[in-house]
Amino acid sequence: MQRKKIIYSICFIGLIIIALSCNNRGKKDAISSDLVHIPVSAEGENSDLAMPKFEFERTDHDFGTLIQGEKVSFTYKFKNSGTSDLIISTVVPGCGCTVAQFTKTPVKKGEGGFITINLDTENKKGPLRKKVAVQANTYPAETNLWFSATVELP
After folding, report:
1. Which residues partner with 65 through β-bridges?
2. Four-residue CA torsion sign, 7, 10, 15, 16
Protein backbone atom coordinates (compact mmCIF):
# COMPACT_ATOMS: atom_id res chain seq x y z
CA MET A 1 0.00 0.00 0.00
CA GLN A 2 2.83 2.38 0.90
CA ARG A 3 4.52 1.55 -2.38
CA LYS A 4 1.38 2.56 -4.37
CA LYS A 5 1.26 5.93 -2.58
CA ILE A 6 4.89 6.59 -3.51
CA ILE A 7 4.27 5.66 -7.17
CA TYR A 8 1.14 7.86 -7.33
CA SER A 9 3.04 10.74 -5.72
CA ILE A 10 5.89 10.45 -8.25
CA CYS A 11 3.40 10.36 -11.16
CA PHE A 12 1.55 13.39 -9.79
CA ILE A 13 4.77 15.39 -9.41
CA GLY A 14 5.81 14.39 -12.94
CA LEU A 15 2.50 15.62 -14.35
CA ILE A 16 2.89 18.95 -12.55
CA ILE A 17 6.41 19.37 -13.96
CA ILE A 18 5.19 18.61 -17.49
CA ALA A 19 2.26 21.02 -17.17
CA LEU A 20 4.49 23.82 -15.91
CA SER A 21 7.09 23.30 -18.65
CA CYS A 22 4.50 23.75 -21.42
CA ASN A 23 4.03 27.51 -21.10
CA ASN A 24 5.12 30.18 -23.58
CA ARG A 25 6.64 32.64 -21.13
CA GLY A 26 9.98 33.93 -22.27
CA LYS A 27 9.51 32.95 -25.91
CA LYS A 28 10.17 35.93 -28.16
CA ASP A 29 8.97 34.27 -31.38
CA ALA A 30 5.65 33.02 -30.00
CA ILE A 31 2.70 34.39 -31.95
CA SER A 32 -0.51 35.08 -30.13
CA SER A 33 -3.33 32.86 -31.34
CA ASP A 34 -5.48 36.01 -31.46
CA LEU A 35 -3.54 37.05 -34.56
CA VAL A 36 -4.11 33.80 -36.44
CA HIS A 37 -7.73 33.41 -37.48
CA ILE A 38 -8.75 31.16 -40.34
CA PRO A 39 -12.47 31.70 -40.92
CA VAL A 40 -13.30 28.42 -42.64
CA SER A 41 -16.25 26.31 -41.60
CA ALA A 42 -16.12 22.57 -41.00
CA GLU A 43 -17.67 22.15 -44.44
CA GLY A 44 -14.68 23.95 -45.98
CA GLU A 45 -16.55 27.14 -46.86
CA ASN A 46 -14.55 30.33 -46.57
CA SER A 47 -16.42 33.20 -44.93
CA ASP A 48 -16.25 36.79 -46.15
CA LEU A 49 -14.17 37.97 -43.18
CA ALA A 50 -10.96 39.91 -43.81
CA MET A 51 -8.11 37.59 -44.76
CA PRO A 52 -4.50 38.14 -45.80
CA LYS A 53 -3.40 36.60 -49.10
CA PHE A 54 -0.01 35.76 -50.60
CA GLU A 55 0.66 37.04 -54.10
CA PHE A 56 4.10 35.71 -55.07
CA GLU A 57 6.02 36.98 -58.09
CA ARG A 58 6.93 33.31 -58.61
CA THR A 59 6.69 30.12 -56.55
CA ASP A 60 9.27 28.05 -58.42
CA HIS A 61 12.95 28.75 -59.07
CA ASP A 62 15.55 26.83 -61.07
CA PHE A 63 19.15 27.43 -60.02
CA GLY A 64 20.33 25.67 -63.18
CA THR A 65 23.57 23.69 -63.13
CA LEU A 66 25.71 24.07 -60.01
CA ILE A 67 29.09 22.64 -59.02
CA GLN A 68 29.06 20.46 -55.89
CA GLY A 69 29.96 22.57 -52.84
CA GLU A 70 28.54 25.77 -54.32
CA LYS A 71 26.32 27.92 -52.08
CA VAL A 72 23.52 29.90 -53.72
CA SER A 73 20.46 31.83 -52.62
CA PHE A 74 17.20 33.07 -54.06
CA THR A 75 14.60 35.49 -52.70
CA TYR A 76 10.90 34.85 -53.32
CA LYS A 77 9.11 38.21 -53.16
CA PHE A 78 5.44 38.51 -52.33
CA LYS A 79 2.75 41.09 -51.78
CA ASN A 80 -0.14 40.85 -49.32
CA SER A 81 -3.11 41.21 -51.68
CA GLY A 82 -5.58 40.40 -48.89
CA THR A 83 -7.50 42.69 -46.59
CA SER A 84 -5.69 42.20 -43.26
CA ASP A 85 -2.12 41.82 -41.94
CA LEU A 86 -0.25 38.74 -43.19
CA ILE A 87 1.85 36.97 -40.56
CA ILE A 88 4.32 34.21 -41.46
CA SER A 89 4.61 31.87 -38.49
CA THR A 90 7.33 29.62 -39.89
CA VAL A 91 9.16 28.55 -43.03
CA VAL A 92 10.12 24.87 -43.19
CA PRO A 93 12.76 23.86 -45.77
CA GLY A 94 12.39 20.38 -47.25
CA CYS A 95 15.96 19.32 -46.46
CA GLY A 96 18.95 20.07 -44.26
CA CYS A 97 20.81 21.60 -47.22
CA THR A 98 18.48 24.63 -47.17
CA VAL A 99 18.17 27.49 -44.70
CA ALA A 100 15.42 30.10 -44.93
CA GLN A 101 15.04 33.70 -43.78
CA PHE A 102 11.76 35.56 -44.04
CA THR A 103 9.84 38.69 -43.12
CA LYS A 104 9.10 38.31 -39.42
CA THR A 105 6.91 41.37 -38.93
CA PRO A 106 3.25 41.58 -40.01
CA VAL A 107 2.92 42.53 -43.69
CA LYS A 108 0.16 45.10 -44.09
CA LYS A 109 -2.41 45.05 -46.91
CA GLY A 110 -0.74 46.05 -50.18
CA GLU A 111 2.81 45.80 -48.79
CA GLY A 112 5.51 43.29 -49.66
CA GLY A 113 7.74 40.81 -47.94
CA PHE A 114 10.34 38.16 -48.74
CA ILE A 115 11.41 34.59 -48.17
CA THR A 116 15.08 33.92 -48.93
CA ILE A 117 16.41 30.38 -49.26
CA ASN A 118 20.09 29.52 -49.04
CA LEU A 119 21.11 26.24 -50.67
CA ASP A 120 24.38 24.46 -49.86
CA THR A 121 25.22 21.79 -52.46
CA GLU A 122 27.92 20.14 -50.35
CA ASN A 123 27.53 16.32 -50.61
CA LYS A 124 24.78 16.68 -53.26
CA LYS A 125 24.88 15.44 -56.83
CA GLY A 126 22.47 15.04 -59.68
CA PRO A 127 19.03 16.65 -60.03
CA LEU A 128 17.43 18.31 -56.97
CA ARG A 129 13.79 19.32 -56.57
CA LYS A 130 12.92 20.61 -53.10
CA LYS A 131 9.95 22.20 -51.38
CA VAL A 132 9.85 25.00 -48.83
CA ALA A 133 6.61 25.09 -46.79
CA VAL A 134 5.49 28.57 -45.72
CA GLN A 135 2.99 28.59 -42.85
CA ALA A 136 0.99 31.77 -42.33
CA ASN A 137 -2.42 33.12 -41.32
CA THR A 138 -3.67 32.73 -44.90
CA TYR A 139 -6.11 30.30 -46.45
CA PRO A 140 -4.81 27.73 -47.06
CA ALA A 141 -2.52 27.98 -44.04
CA GLU A 142 0.45 26.47 -45.92
CA THR A 143 1.89 27.64 -49.23
CA ASN A 144 4.60 25.63 -50.99
CA LEU A 145 7.56 27.19 -52.76
CA TRP A 146 9.75 25.03 -54.98
CA PHE A 147 13.33 25.13 -56.22
CA SER A 148 15.41 22.89 -58.40
CA ALA A 149 19.03 22.50 -59.54
CA THR A 150 21.36 20.04 -61.16
CA VAL A 151 24.52 19.48 -59.12
CA GLU A 152 27.62 18.28 -60.95
CA LEU A 153 30.88 17.01 -59.48
CA PRO A 154 33.84 19.43 -59.72
Report:
1. 150
2. positive
Per-residue pLDDT, 33: 47
Length of the chain, please?
Answer: 154
Pairing of strands 126-136, 88-93: antiparallel
Is residue 26's pLDDT more than 50? no
| Cα–Cα distance for residue pair 135/49, rounded to 1 Å | 20
**Average pLDDT estimate for 56-64:** 97
First to last CA, the chain: 71
Q: What is the pTM of this model?
A: 0.70
Query: Which H or E run includes 80?
Result: strand 71-80
Rounded CA-CA distance 37/47 in Å is 11
Residue 130: strand pairing partners: 147
